[in-house]
Write a structure and sequence with these properties.
Layout lengths: L2 E4 L9 E7 L6 E2 L4 E6 L4 E5 L4 E6 L6 E3 L3 E6 L29 E2 L16 E2 L5 E2 L3 H10 L17 H10 L5 H10 L16 H8 L21 H15 L3 E9 L1 H15 L8 H15 L5 E3 L4 E3 L5 E3 L1 E3 L2 E3 L2 E2 L7 H17 L14 E5 L18 E14 L5 E14 L5 H16 L10
Parallel strand pairs: 15-19, 19-20
Antiparallel strand pairs: 1-8, 2-4, 2-7, 3-6, 4-5, 6-8, 6-9, 10-11, 12-21, 13-14, 15-18, 16-17, 20-21
Length: 460
């Protein structure tokens, strides 16, 4: 009996996923556990395995399609079994939307037809200018093969959706990219003009470069007369929107303070010595600072909270967010129940969190701002001495950790010398916390850092 393979829901906050790669073709045999397709959310990537063995009878989406979660993406069963009932959406009668081929329900092993073009919004995809449009999968496939500029196509399907006959009309008009132009559009993000200078309107790489170049203005500085526009990635758009919303919708202030890092460095030295003796947990300076922050949050729960407009939600446990720089952009995953961990356990959790974030395999539920009650952002490795971190709303505060700098100081024996100090930058929402409590909380973090010792490490 045939059965559907659905797009999984990876976290409650995820509504749509992008299908990035198919590993099986229609008509191909699959065994239980075989990789069927790869997909990704805004911030994580996943692979879906076949739940049972059989023949891949139909695929309803192509690579690059944005698919609603819990939607049928494929059918597995026995050769010859019907698949029409599994197709997402409703089949459009032949002649209403376009050609008969455009109304076929799916790419199947027994019919040899193309991808379903009747799935509502299943064909939403990016054009060559970085925007998005409603387009049937069959039309998109043809446009890719023939290098048609989708940005210039006017859809004749329901709701203005682009269908196969629209692409065929553009091919007839000659609005096509040359192979080199296509490559430059994909790799360099160059813009595409509406009309090329070659015969029949073909657009070459020369046209792309000319469309992106800006003629020198009078008095223009050298180097500013040429530039390249690159569309924002989906992750960058999300980050930009979150940062703008945070600054626009809160009253943020930042206090700066330094903590003596002598004990911090001594503890790190002890960890390195133990690792040479076989200790297998590489506890970093950032792990130690995070441990100190958690202790301070337990004493000053006003900072361990969310501002929810008409109320402030204060948490009894600490769910610590950690800013992680990845190839996909800045991610802030959370460690739930971080206050229950020892320093060693916290180090293991933070390390795994950062590694999974860079691999793109972290659960999306751990990446939303609501998953953490407080966030730490460390730029110390970059040599930054002071910065202003931006709060992840609805959290009420965030700590920026700076580099260690040696400064003149009075030593314990009363003499004068240089000691290491680590900079701490606390940004807080003045709607939720006043300056006095915020300063006391920051001072407590300083105190906890200066009290760190080897007693926190497991005894040999």
């Amino acid at each position: 009996m045939a059965f559907a393979v659905i797009m999984p829901r990876q976290g409650q906050s995820v509504e749509r996923c992008i299908l990035t790669q198919w590993f099986k073709e229609p008509g191909e045999e699959v065994s239980k556990g075989d990789l069927l397709f790869a997909y990704e959310t805004d911030k994580s990537a996943f692979e879906e395995e076949a739940p049972e063995e059989g023949i891949l009878l139909a695929r309803y989406f192509e690579e690059g399609d944005e698919v609603p979660v819990l939607t049928n993406v494929a059918v597995i069963g026995k050769m010859g079994e019907p698949t029409d009932s599994f197709a997402p959406g409703e089949t459009t009668p032949v002649g209403e939307e376009g050609t008969e081929a455009d109304a076929k329900p799916a790419m199947s092993a027994d019919s040899g037809s193309g991808i379903d073009s009747t799935v509502v919004e299943a064909g939403t995809g990016a054009d060559h200018t970085g925007g998005s449009m409603a387009i049937s999968p069959r039309a998109r496939k043809l446009a890719r093969e023939k290098r048609v500029i989708l940005g210039a196509v006017r859809g004749s399907g329901p709701g203005g959706r682009i269908i196969e006959r629209d692409v065929l009309e553009e091919i007839r008009k000659g609005k096509r990219l040359t192979p080199l132009a296509q490559k430059k559009v994909e790799e360099l993000g160059l813009s595409v003009p509406n009309q090329g200078k070659s015969p029949y309107g073909r657009i070459t790489s020369r046209d792309l470069l000319e469309s992106d170049a800006v003629p020198p203005a009078a008095g223009a500085l050298p180097g500013l007369d040429q530039y390249r526009d690159q569309p924002l990635s989906k992750v960058r758009k999300i980050i930009a929107s979150a940062m703008h919303r945070s600054l626009q919708n809160s009253a943020q202030l930042t206090h700066h303070l330094s903590a003596n890092a002598s004990r911090l460095l001594q503890l790190r030295k002890t960890v390195k010595q133990r690792m040479e003796e076989g200790y297998n947990v590489n506890i970093t300076l950032n792990d130690m600072v995070c441990f100190a922050v958690i202790r301070a949050l337990l004493k000053y729960p006003q900072a361990n909270a969310h501002f929810l407009g008409e109320k402030i939600r204060t948490f009894g446990r600490v769910s610590l967010g950690l800013a992680v720089d990845t190839d996909r952009g800045l991610l802030v995953p959370a460690v739930p129940g971080a206050d229950a961990y020892t320093l060693e356990e916290l180090s293991v959790q933070l390390g795994k969190l950062a590694e999974d974030s860079r691999k793109g395999i972290l659960s999306p539920d751990l990446l939303v701002p609501e998953a953490a009650s407080f966030t730490v952002s460390n730029l110390g490795n970059y040599g930054v001495e002071m910065f202003t971190p931006v709060i992840n709303l609805p959290q009420v505060a965030i700590l920026g950790v700076n580099t260690i700098v040696y400064r003149p100081s009075i030593l314990e024996d009363g003499s004068f010398g240089f000691q290491p100090f680590i900079g701490l930058s606390l940004t807080y929402d003045h709607r939720a916390i006043d300056g006095g409590p915020a300063t006391l909380f920051l001072s407590e973090i300083k105190k906890q850092i200066e009290q760190l010792s080897a007693d926190l490490l497991p005894q040999n």
